[in-house]
Amino acid sequence: MEHLMAVVLAAGEGKRMKSKNSKVVHTVCGKPLIKWVYSAVKGAGVEECVLIIGHKAEQVRECMGDHVKYAVQEEQLGTGHAVMQAVEYMQGKDGTVVVLCGDTPLVTTKTISNTIKFHRENNNAATVITAVLDNPEGYGRVVRDKHGNVLKIVEHKDANKEEKNIKEINSGMYCFKIKELIESLKEIRNNNSQGEYYLPDTLEVLIGKGLKVGAYIIEDSTEILGINDRVQLAEASEILKKRILLRNMKAGVTVIDPASTYIDEDVKIGMDTVIYPGTIIEGKTVIGEDCVIGPNSRIVSSKIGDGVAVHQSVIMQSSVDNNTSVGPFAYIRPDSIIGKNVKIGDFVEVKKSVIGDDTKISHLTYVGDAEIGKNVNLGCGVVVVNYDGKKKSKTVVENNAFIGCNVNLVSPVTVKENAYIAAGSTITEEVPENALAIARSRQVVKEEWVLKKGLHKKD
Ligand code: UD1
Ligand code: CA
Questions:
Q1: Which range marks the domain in which residue 54 is found?
Q2: Would residue 363 show up in a list of annotated catalytic residues for this protein?
């Protein structure tokens, strides 16, 4: 099999982002720009991907880890010079290299695959992806001869008046035969208006050698949108958001109001789940089938089972099992594990706790650093007092326990199986199995007290 590799350029400074961070690690729909590009080439079957890094190289390395290989371009002397840094990885290989920029997150696997196919079928030495734009300002223009064959690409800054009128532009994405690319890179010069080594100049070199160079004209020109500033970042976000929603809807998810729904790329949602307006689902969240999510909910990197309802609530880095209901107005904080058929009602906060199956926590309750068993009832206003001002401690409530309203469970403390706790108790010691604990002062009634004090209000 012929080798298929990619070189992705990401060494530039990205000044217009006005950011402390590398341009290509900025995220759209929960995924850094560079990862969008990487996913697209990976999907096209690329076996090896080399990233050209320079500015803020460490951030890019941290983002991509060892999924890719790196070549450092110490000084940014142009796109051709950038690709030269990858020659050590291309040397001695026979096959195709796809060259892309790290700041074009909208390019799709389909376009890359189609281009590779076109490139191979035509036995081209190089194929450039081009687009026809109403406003080609700023882009390199594709110059063709009268038969329509590609002659060269002229950068906007180097173009004459006639060339500036050309509407077909260079997307900055290409396929090359590896050997031909390496050879042609040796021949490009920086005698142009920017004093840079231009990658597109390799095309003219190849044509000069009598080799075939083709152009693959893209249908959807939004795919070539490069991100240079925050405005374009938002534009890309809008387009990708739509693509993700479309994919989910086609897979059987009902989205009531796509305009106010945000779903990250890596989220997975099961069939017949309904997403209500104002909902944001982020990270690697997995949601099962037949759930009702929203309105106005946020779920981050969590696992939600089947048949779960989440109303006006926030769930962070936690799991919620089948047929459980969360909200309205609940807050599930990280590292919580909520069982099956549980009710987490209004104004309930759960933090780093395990809640067993069939347990009900219906209203106004805080559960932190606790292990609550199965079929437990936590009455209205129960507070797990997990923090003594210095350290956090753990509370355990065993299966079938019944905790009355407005109870404080002062951690560390254990309530054993089937125990009851009277409303209003502050529990500081273990409650044995099957026992009733009452930890509050007895009621005192002072007859006629109001009259004696002269506090009686007349009708
Ligand atoms: C480039 C093309 C232009 C095309 C346009 C499409 C050249 C000379 N021009 O222009 O024909 O229409 O893309 O968007 O290639 N980079 C490096 N090292 C460098 C220079 C650039 O890694 O030394 C990276 C940048 O980080 C960026 C990409 O290469 O990701 C493109 O560079 P940029 O300077 O933006 O090229 P354009 O002027 O947009
Ligand atoms: Ca650019």
A1: 3-224
A2: yes
* Distance between CA atoms of residues 41 and 100, nearest Å: 9
Which of the listed residues 23, 70, 79, 154 should we mutate to test ligand 1's pocket, taking the one with most ligand atoms within 8 A of CB? Answer: 79
Of the three residues 206, 224, 242, the one that is the final residue of a domain is: 224
> How high is the mean pLDDT of the chain?
97
- pLDDT, tens digit, 9 for 90 and up, residues 13-31: 889 999 999 999 999 999 9
Domain termination site, one of 178, 205, 224? 224
> How confident is the model over 69-89, as a mean pLDDT?
97
Query: Please, which residues bridge with residue 340 across strands?
Result: none
Helix axes 201-208 and 178-185, enclosed angle (nearest 10):
100
Give the ligand whose atoms come closest to the C-alpha of residue 131.
1
Q: What is the residue with the minimal CA distance to atom 26 of ligand 1?
A: 12
**Ligand 1 lining (C-beta closer than 6 Å):** 9-12, 52, 73, 76-79, 81-82, 101-103, 139-140, 153, 155, 169-172, 198-200, 226
3-state secondary structure of 206: helix
**Is the Cβ–Cβ distance between 263 and 269 less than 8 Å?**
yes
Both tokens of 305, joined, read 């089972």
Look at residue 252 and tell me if it is in a domain: no
Contact predicate 243/265, CB 8 Å: no
Contact call for residues 381 and 406 (beta carbons, < 8 A): yes
In a domain, 56, yes or no: yes
- Residues 347-389: pLDDT tens digits? 999 999 999 999 999 999 999 999 999 999 999 999 999 999 9
82: helix, strand or coil: helix
Say if residue 412 is preceded by a cis peptide, omega within 30 of 0: yes
Domain count, the chain: 2
- Res. 88: pLDDT tops 80: yes
CATH number at residue 427: 2.160.10.10
- Nearest alpha carbon to residue 341 among 313, 364, 320: 320
Atom 32 (ligand 1): residue with closest C-alpha? Answer: 79
Q: Transcribe 208-247 into DSSP letters.
A: HTT--EEEEE-S-GGGG----SHHHHHHHHHHHHHHHHHH
Residues 217, 69, single domain; the answer is: yes
Atom of ligand 1 nearest to the CA of 75: 23
Does residue 290 lie in a domain region? no
Asked whether residue 119 is assigned to any structural domain, the reply reads yes
The span from the CA of 425 to the CA of 421, in Å, is 7
